[in-house]
Specification:
The structure is a single chain. About 45% of the residues are buried. About 35% of the residues lie in helices and about 15% in strands. The strands form 2 sheets. It has an 8-stranded parallel barrel with strand order 1-2-3-4-7-8-9-10, surrounded by 5 helices. The protein has a two-stranded antiparallel ribbon with strand order 5-6. The protein contains 8 helices and 10 strands.
Length: about 260
């Protein structure tokens, strides 16, 4: 039986930067008001369907069955050419939550530089070492694209002490979002933790809920928390598996759930 990760172990949190964090430049798209649904996609057709269904943002990945890997530049360019909503791109070359070696880090760095030139809306990355966020590596890679903001993905859920991890991430100005499932348990339990994280994260970081979300979970989180950004994968697909394409009608339904 899995144990709940403590949200606050009573230890003193390290220093972090507090202050305004204006949106950095890039293909940010128009300002989105109200609840936002982010859909993970891996093809041009998926991206088009997500936008048609009313998604507010896209997370573009390859290797979707492995939790998302770095897509190739050709795919990124193709998606940017056909959608107008913001596109954040995964920066992850292996399915673990750590970089394999210095060679991989150098490749990720150069790829981040290229993404900065392409004009994507932001990056998606996350690294964990010994139960703590690998802030040094995240910041090193983000320095390759200083005008881009980033989402720290569900590597966050591997942190032993989420509140300490959150405090550490606040010291990296480019990280403006955290994607998290809220930990173990049912959705009412997760909702409680997500709301605690959301309150502690603001104003520097937006907490985005994701990880097995469906319409029922979205409805619960929408009513029981003030979390207003949500990340979906299988729930946006014609069938609930990664081989099935994103379906605009399903995305539209999920957006409708969020709007109430």
């Amino acid at each position: 039986m899995s144990q709940e990760r403590p949200l606050d172990n009573g230890e003193t949190m390290g220093p972090f930067v507090v202050g305004s964090r204006p949106s950095l430049s890039g293909r940010a798209g128009k300002l989105h008001r109200g609840p936002l649904l982010e859909v993970v996609v891996s093809t041009v057709a998926d991206a088009v369907a997500a936008e048609e269904g009313g998604a507010g943002r896209i997370e573009l990945v390859a290797g979707i069955e492995q939790g998302g890997l770095t897509p190739d530049l050709a795919m990124i360019r193709s998606v940017l050419a056909v959608v107008r909503i913001p596109v954040r791109v995964m920066l992850r070359d292996n399915p673990s939550y750590a970089a394999a070696d210095e060679s991989e880090i150098r490749h990720l760095y150069s790829f981040a530089q290229e993404l900065g030139r392409l004009g994507v809306a932001g990056l998606v990355l996350g690294f964990i070492q010994d139960g703590k966020v690998d802030l040094a590596l995240a910041c090193r890679l983000l320095s390759a694209a200083p005008l881009l903001n980033a989402t720290f993905h569900r590597a966050f859920d591997q942190a032993t002490h989420p509140m300490e991890a959150l405090a550490a991430l606040k010291s990296c100005e480019q990280i403006d979002r955290i994607l998290t499932d809220g930990g173990p348990g049912d959705w009412p339990e997760r909702a409680r933790r997500l709301e605690m994280l959301r309150a502690r994260a603001r104003p520097e970081i937006t907490v985005m809920a994701g990880g097995g979300l469906d319409a029922e979970a979205l409805r619960l989180l929408r009513t029981r928390t003030e979390v207003r950004e949500f990340h979906v994968g299988r729930a946006a697909r014609l069938e609930p598996n990664w081989q099935s394409p994103v379906d605009a009608a399903r995305v539209h339904h999920l957006v409708g759930v969020l709007k109430g």
